Structures are given as structure tokens and as C-alpha cells.
Amino acid sequence: MNLHLLIDRLTVSIFSYANKEIKIVNNINPFLQAEAREEILNNLLSNLLGQATFHAKSKHIRISSRAFHNVILMNIKYKDPRPVYDLEKDLSEVKNQAEMLGGCLYFAKNKINGTNISLTFINHQISASVPNWNAKLN
Question: Which of 74, 90, 101, 109 could share a disulfide with 119, CB 3.0–4.6 Å?
């Protein structure tokens, strides 16, 4: 699945029920493909974007992504006035979904850069093609 297109689709559906004027900046490489359990990833990203849209103090939410071998790292950055422990509490179920994808969620916050939610998960499309260097040679 194409992550850039997935974020664009989710953005349209989130804006259909959000009452805020927020611009989501999708900085994900349009060629980045991810192979993960689509329904879990779709639900997870929808929850993260929904939370960011609902609690955003600023008018911008930035989403970026990078692939590191067989791991994809996604960052969602925005201004959120809540403390990190409130954010963690609200997203505890989403954290479990990230673990189902073989990944994790990390929350960071500071006064200058605002809130950063980092999501990592295993890209099975790439991991299937990676040679097993520990395998015995015949």
C-alpha cells in the first residue's frame, strides 16, 4: 500500500467530521510502499490523525516518513497543549495496535517544536526480500 495515498485518504475522511481549519502537510515520499496489516495500519493512523486534529493548537500538522531497511518510521508533528501523560493515556489502545504491527509509538514534546508522535512498524514487503545472513550455507 502507498503510505502517501493512505494519509491523503484519511485526511479527507477526518476533515469531513472535524470542525477545525487545519492544514495537514503530507511529506511522505509518494513512492514509499508499505506491506503491513492494512486494517490495523489504517485504524492506527486514523486514530493518530484524529487525535492530532482534535487537540491541535496550531493550524498545521506535519507528517513525514522514512524507511530504514525493513522498518518504517513515521512522525506526526503538531502543537498540543496537553501533557505527554494525557496523550499517552488517550492513545494507549493505539500503542497496542502499533505493537501488533511489530512496532511501537513514542511521544515527545517541547515548547519550541511542539508534540511529536513517532510510529515505527515492520515493512514486511522489504523484510521478505532481505537475505538471512545467519542462515547456514550448504
Answer: 74
Spell out the domain ranges in the chain: 3-126
pTM: 0.82
CATH architecture of 3-126: 2-Layer Sandwich (3.30)
Buried b (16+ CB within 10 A) or exposed e, 119-135: bbbbbeebeeeeeeeee
Place of cell 512496532: 103
pLDDT averaged over the chain? 82
The residue length of the chain stands at 138
How many of the other CB atoms lie within 10 Å of CB of 61?
Answer: 23
Closest CA to 62 of 111, 10, 116, 109: 116
Q: Radius of gyration over alpha carbons of the chain, in Å?
A: 16
Q: Please report, as a single letter, which amino acid is at residue 94.
A: V
